[in-house]
Predict the structure.
Amino acid sequence: MKIAVRAAMIVALLATLIAHPLPAGASKDAPGTSKHTIAMGDWNRPYLLHVPPQPESGAPPPLIVALHGGLNDSEYVRRQSGLDEVADRHGYAVAYPDGLLGTWNAGACCWFARWTGVDDVAFLDKLIDTLVRQGVADPRRVFVTGFSNGGGMAYRYACERSDRIAGIAVVSGALAIGCTPRRPVPVLAFHGTWDPSVPYTGGGNMDADVHFPFIPVQVVMEFWRWVDKLPALSWPLPDGPDDCVGTGPGPVVVALCTRQRGGHEWPDYASELMARFFADRPSLPKT
């Protein structure tokens, strides 16, 4: 597709989003899932918000920001992950934002968001700030998860905003950007050895016009282990199946769950395990 035609298509679709934003939805502190928008310049960016039943203490709950895969949307990852039910059991709020035309600018990927240079890091900053200000989220207990392109965006946010999040969980995602986190980041990853989209052993191209190979999953995990100054991934992960190994006990843990012959998918145990993984991580220091 020629650049001029591509740009015209994107402008037309953005105009549609601007002219027809989603409704504000229900109150943000009411239990359940509702639709909302956040203004980013002239663009009202939509997201779903799930609020658990309020605890007796009335304190804001921890927040999971869940990022959909490429060419999907917030409703898709909400159903794919089953995080609403998990959040209610464990007391998390969950925000499901939408990327530009189903994509996130994770660095070397993906498509529309990368082509237009959308600042998705700034969008997530504003989303988290908004929910904290409204009393929906505990600022010291913010976590990010994502599938595929959304997983790459979770990695990017951890690389650039490590001082704002208490941990990430990536499902079938790729690190697609240079990474220099300011502080150690707890990382839990899920990946299938037969993933055709983000190859477990690396290779292929990160995007249609980015001829740079995916980094092998185990190399990515070795990077996080190294940057977090942790030992080898050789300990069984508490509560995890046999294919999950981590760096051992401690406040900061890097762990990988490898699904033998698994594809490009969200494992049925992933959401419950990540909720427990997040619960075991310490809160961020007070600022």
About this structure: Strands lie at 32-40, 43-51, 63-67, 93-97, 142-147, 167-171, 187-192, 235-236, 244-246, 254-259. The domain at 32-280 is CATH 3.40.50.1820 (Rossmann fold). The chain has one domain: 32-280.
